[in-house]
Amino acid sequence: MVTVIIPLFNGAAFIQETIQYVLDQSHERLEVVVVDDGSTDGGVDIVRRCLADTRVGLIMKPHVGIAGSRNVGLAWADPRSEYVLFLDQDDAIAPDLLEGLIHILVRRTDAVGAYAIADFIDDSGNALARGGFASAMRDRRTLRGRSLVALPPASDVEWPQLFFSNHLYPPSAVLLRKEAVIGAGGLDESYRVADDWDLMVRLLRRGPIVPWDEVRVGYRRHGGNASSDTPRNVRETRGVWANTYYSAENDRQRRATLHRYWRAHQRAASRRKLGEAREKLRQGRLGGAIARAADAGAHALLRRPLRRWRTTHGAPYKHGRIGVREAS
Questions:
Q1: Residue 162 and residue 168: Cα distance in Å, rounded?
Q2: Tens-digit pLDDT profile for residues 11-56
Q3: What CATH architecture is 2-228?
Q4: Residue 64 contacts by C-beta under 8 Å, 6 or more apart in sequence?
Q5: Cβ-based burial of 297 (10 A; exposed 0-12, middle 13-18, buried ≥19)
Q6: Whole-number mean pLDDT of the chain?
Q7: C-beta of residue 116 within 8 angstroms of C-beta of residue 153
């Protein structure tokens, strides 16, 4: 059985379509848990009309943010459920997504999850910049010696390959073992947008996540995307780096591995920005060249993430089974 958790916050424009994508899955043994996070746009009324299908449930609760909403959905999941998918309220999934990912996880008992590839779609569900986001998901790197080198797209995702950037995004593309998610503590609610990335990094301590190298998810891009807030993304990226680097779960060997990854990344960033500085200098853009060169120097000197970047000092998964469940 699969629990599909959909946090809902002012998502009336797409929520009915998103729920229907789940109900149309070729794998039918599932439940849809829509967790309303204090919406004011009529989306809840749309969900209530979907409750005629007994597989759909609605949780009404106060606003706690997307990570808290995902945790609430996890707490309300059917105890018989073996897998969980955190589906965004506006994403599209192919009818065979769950069936394909379950097939992988039945064979790979060592894995904590499996994922398909996502690509951009627009408000109408049409392809947008076809192949661009899919290429980014496939562009994973691992440490070889002192350098980060590309991995084949079909290779497992293993710790700590997601340390610097999240290639398992959006979460709509990733099917996880529910027991592993609960064992890892659920979502860390100190994040506003990077909670799923932080969870994936923590889960990879328990086992690999296996790719299905086929586009099966439409990642919708529009003005309301939470991930479009650049300053917040920078803060939370630094938070994932620092929380991972300074985690109490790191033994001596893991700390050494993370340090090697960090230094390799900083060397690569420094070289890239020095190249950009030279290019700006050739273009006569002296101010830009100086700024880029200074940035390159900072990367070369930063020996480890700053401790003050850490975003939390407590346990994740604060919210349990709060709210009221509505069903048919």
A1: 8
A2: 999 999 999 999 999 999 999 999 999 999 999 999 999 999 999 9
A3: Alpha-Beta Complex (3.90)
A4: 37, 72, 189, 319, 322
A5: middle
A6: 94
A7: no
C-alpha distances (whole Å) from 292 to each of 106, 148, 232 are 49, 22, 22
> Distance between CA 119 and CA 170 in Å, rounded?
10
Look at strands 147-150 and 324-326 and give their pairing.
unpaired
* CA–centroid distance for 34 within its chain: 18
Tracing tokens 């967790």 back to the chain, one arrives at: 35
Phi/psi of residue 5, nearest 5 degrees: -105, 125
Q: Where are the domains of the chain?
A: 2-228, 245-309
Pure H helices in 84-228: 97-107, 132-138, 178-183, 195-203
DSSP E strand stretches across 182-300: 209-220
The span from the CA of 292 to the CA of 295, in Å, is 5
- Rounded average pLDDT over 102-109: 98
Q: Phi first, then psi: give them for residue 68, nearest 5 degrees.
A: -60, -40
pLDDT at 194 over 60: yes
User: Would you state the pLDDT for residue 226?
Assistant: 56
Largest CA distance in the chain: 67
Q: Distances from the Cα of 166 to the Cαs of 59, 110, 198, 311, in angstroms?
A: 29, 21, 9, 17
Q: Which of 294, 196, 198 lies closest to 242, judged by CA?
A: 198
Amino acid type, 233: N
- Run of H or E including 50: helix 43-50
| Paired strand residues for 324 | 60
Bridge partners of residue 6, in order along the sequence: 34
Q: SS3 of 144, please?
A: strand
